Amino acid sequence: MSPFALAQTMEDHLIGDLILRSSSDLSDASSWYDSADNLSYTLTNAPTPPPPTVPLLADNPRIVLVQVAYGGATSEATTLAFVHEQKPHFETPRVLHDARDDTRSYLFLSRVPGRTLGDAWPTLDETWKHRYVEAVVKTCETLAGWKGDVLGGVDGKSIPEQYLTQRGTVMDFRPEKLTEVCQLMGMDCSTFVFYHADLGPGNIIVEDVPKDGTIGIIDWEIAGYVPRGWIRTKFRLISGLDLPNPGAGEETHWWRSEVQKLLEKRGFEDHSADWASWWY
């Protein structure tokens, strides 16, 4: 062996009933290869009993738990595959691997380069802040051009939109139930349009240093077909879309307020008063 050859590295992670192995040996037959860290990954069933483990550190640079998804709904992998087929103008994560065991499903995604708009916000001037408002409204308009016949996911299953289930009741995400709710609010349900439904600053990826104004969109768990009237209405209502770090003199709701104002100019309806009467 050459004295300059690099030693191969291998690392195992126990995830549920599965073992995720990362290796620098790219010649191995593996489930997938991730160019971001130049490693191959293989997913196999864990033995019984499972091997000894230590907790995964929160600052692990490669393995990050992003979220725990709802069961019984359209999978994020299915939604992302649909979005990729449309060849949108924004970036989205790539599905590296989608796996299931007896009790869980596991989705491994690539990282969209850049940083979240929430992290970048304190460093942005007014021009860039409004430019990203414009970019997200353009994204909403693009998605709204994709039509569906059922209020739900791209495969006809449900979407876990908790703000269309009344507070204090059992969450019922069946398409027919959510349609009934939207009709009670006066929304037009004769057709449905595609919507990300969670376009807060934490799910919008921007350049580390603003240059071209390109954006990425992550976290497609609740995306699906909804009445067009829900798009602007959700920005009017939901504090989860607020800024985590507003600038000096800004309110936390500056982001969603400016987005909904521009959506109004682009012809999107507001049903927030009807929603509040129904919700409370």
TrEMBL record:
UniProt xrefs under SUPFAM superfamilies: Protein kinase-like (PK-like)
Top-level lineage group: Eukaryota
Domain Aminoglycoside phosphotransferase, chain residue ranges per copy: 73-228
Pfam families in UniProt: APH
Name the UniProt record assigns to this protein: Aminoglycoside phosphotransferase domain-containing protein
